[in-house]
Amino acid sequence: SVTERYYKPRFLLDANGQKGHDQCALFHSNRIVLVTLAPSHPILKENKTVTKVDYQVNEKLNRLNNQVSGKWKKGGQKLQKQSALCIVTCSDGQTYTIVSTVPGSLIEVNEHLTTSPERLTEKPWSSGYIAIVLPPLKMDTMLLDTMTSPEAYVKARRDVIPKCYITDEETFVDSQCPIVEEG
Fold it and tell me: What is the CATH number of the domain that holds 85?
């Protein structure tokens, strides 16, 4: 898939200190990072129905108001690894705070999720991404090295990752599950 070809997945286990709330950061060669859910996150693992994605993360901060400009994408909201990006509500009433996974500048949020929240579960590795973050210069390599690799992710979460994400060689792959779009 395009994701496998151009992005290196890394995982943040137990995001925001919540057991099992795993997230994925897809690192592109141009330094940008797509933030999405990991297959072991309860929303995907339990095949929940997402009813709302709200980028208003607190009383004063709405990620939809993020504005960047120019070639170097100046002016984006500053993020830490555990900064809230959005709050996801499911049909069972459960809410989940989705975090940045990496420090950097917020380049954009996926506004389409506000009107089509089902994309988050139907196409998490493409049109269902949550946000795009630009890590500080030269920090992307360090982040790649310190976040959980696909192989370590499979070892840590083998019992909760849907089998279609694991190859015969016990490595992670994104293109074998029906919720992932090809190309």
Answer: 2.40.50.100
Q: Is the pTM of this model over 0.85?
A: yes
pLDDT at 108 over 90: yes
182 in a structural domain? no
* CA–CA–CA angle 105, 156, 27 (5° rounding): 25
Provide the 10 A C-beta neighbour count for residue 159. Answer: 6
DSSP state of 172: B
60 contacts: CB under 8 Å, gap ≥ 6: none
CA-based nearest residue to 37, from 183, 136, 160, 169: 160
- Asked whether residue 71 carries a pLDDT value surpassing 70, the answer given is no
Do you know the residue count of the chain?
Answer: 183
